[in-house]
Amino acid sequence: MKNIDLKGTYDRIVRIRLLKNFEIITNTIGGILFGPSKVTPGAPHIVDSIEIKRFMSAAIIALIPSTAAAIYFWGFAAIKIIIVSYVAGGITEVLFAFIRKKEIEEGFLVTGLIFPLILPPSTPLWVVAVGVIFGTIFGKEVFGGTGRNIFNPALVGRIFITIGFPEIMTTSWITPLSDTITSATPLVVYKSSQAVPPFLDLLLGTTAGSMGETFRIGIILGGLFLMFIRITNWRIPISYLLSVFVLSLLGHTILPVKIAPPAFQLLSGGLLFGAMFMATDPVTSPFTKTGKVVFGILAGIFTILIRAFSGFTEGVMFSIVLMNGFTPLIDHIVVSSKYRLEKNER
After folding, report:
1. Closest listed residue to residue 225, CA positions, set 280, 184, 182, 152
2. Is the separation of the CB atoms in 244 and 265 below 8 Å?
């Protein structure tokens, strides 16, 4: 049977005069389906098509368990929030691509999914749109687009609507598999009464929380998958989680009312989701191995401090964005320390 050249057929279709006006969009679709079209004319050659599109595809695969759980727990409400995130953020990405006369950047494929997963399932759709547009513009586009941003765009959008609409974002939570509205997540309950729910409930996702943070077994599996295929580096999530465990172990011994026990800290709020999918963002986290460990440890420290002593019950999003700002300094210090001897010998 004669082989069908799918990529060649696709290229011939997009050469149609009408479609050439939309080559920014058609080039992006072709890249996702068939990988990069540019290869070296001679050695060394590109031996695989793993690039940003493939990295984004792996991240989306890792997010499937969390996404499926969100849809299972909250049904059509979760689907609508995800769709609005992709539509509003996608339109923003396309507009900036046309303004810059560049191809659409694939980074939004992951941002557009992570953002709704860190929202309460009761979030109004107009707030979802405002948050994802703000995060895309001020978390990424003002810095020049994907690969140039300092902060995680999804977290920038989440923090903006949390501060801008605090009542909407912090007081109305829907209990999984029901329409019951509650004002308390496990972290809020602990802060007021030091009550801890069964750990199995926290693992399976039957407690209130943001859409993607409750089914923690799925989060762990997705994070391990990314580490196994080396899309993310294990140093950030492991050092992040270990620092939270150690600090909460010590803190709970001294201040049990303020600082929750270690296991509860790890299995509550957005800690696992943040450690696995957001702190590991290769653009906004350190590139040095030592820097990754420092990033994770400090993020863990800030998370515990914010959870225990601030007016916010959750400290993950604030701690990660704060550490994003320190990332260039961390890498600079690590590199300067490592090469100080060679520099002095000159």
Report:
1. 280
2. yes
Secondary structure of residue 86 in the 3-state scheme = helix
Phi, psi (deg, nearest 5) at residue 182: -130, 150
| φ, ψ (nearest 5 deg) of residue 181 | -95, 130
182: helix, strand or coil: strand
Q: What is the pLDDT of residues 160-191, one digit of tens each?
A: 999 999 888 887 788 888 877 776 788 888 88
Sign of CA dihedral 305, 310, 314, 320: negative
CATH of span 52-325: 1.10.3430
Provide the whole-model pTM.
0.81
329 burial type by CB count under 10 A (0-12 exposed, 13-18 middle, 19+ buried): exposed
Q: How many residues would you count in the chain? A: 346
How does pLDDT run across 256-308, given as a tens digit for each residue? 989 999 999 999 989 999 999 999 988 899 999 999 999 999 999 999 999 99
Q: What residue type is 21 in one-letter code?
A: N
List the structure tokens of 217.
Answer: 């077994």
Structural domain boundaries of the chain?
Answer: 52-325
- For the chain, percent of residues with pLDDT exceeding 70: 81
Q: Enter the tokens of residue 160.
A: 């903006």
Position 99 scores a pLDDT of: 82
